[in-house]
Amino acid sequence: KYDQAMDMFDKSLQIRLSVLGHNHPDVARSYNSIGVVYDHQGKSDQAMEMHNKSLQIRLSVLGHNHPHVAWSYHNIGVVYDHQGKSDQAVDMFDKSLQIRLSVLGHNHPHVASSYNNIGVVYHHQGKYDQAVDMYNKSLQIGLSVLGHNHPHVANLYHNIGLVYHHQGKYDQA
């Protein structure tokens, strides 16, 4: 129900702009949410515009080393990936990863998510060894934080299996 979601997010944005001004983290959150809806609708240009607005506010208010800034880079990376702009997607996912590593440490689910996202792009590019490396980094974090019986861990095993399948390594897959 994208139209209803967009209507609600826009109402939220208008209230936040009138009450909080144009340079507030909650305004950035509204732009981010609108960007996600645009991306799901396949409207990449509008999604990118919203995510960049969100990023600029977050950078100016929160600085360069904040988890919300990492989310903005992540979301921009997702849009680039959906556009088939793999190199730009990896750059954004890597920026997100570096912030997450410095703020959250090496053993956090969001760090695992960053490694997985980079792995997905490498997989799409046919860089299978690099994809498996990223997936394995994500898997190690997932196993230690989430345990062996978690859906995210299952997804990582699935991703690694897909790479092996694409490489013709059927026994490993």
TrEMBL record:
It holds the Pfam family TPR_10. One of its GO terms (cellular component) is microtubule. It is found in: Cytoplasm, Cytoskeleton. InterPro entries: TPR-like_helical_dom_sf, TPR_rpt. Its main location: cytoplasm. TPR repeats lie at residues 28-61, 70-103, 112-145. Gene3D superfamilies: Tetratricopeptide repeat domain. SMART domains: TPR. Coiled coil: none annotated. Keywords: Cytoplasm, Cytoskeleton, Microtubule, Motor protein, Repeat, TPR repeat. Kinesin is a microtubule-associated force-producing protein that play a role in organelle transport. Belongs to the kinesin light chain family. Oligomeric complex composed of two heavy chains and two light chains. This is Kinesin light chain.
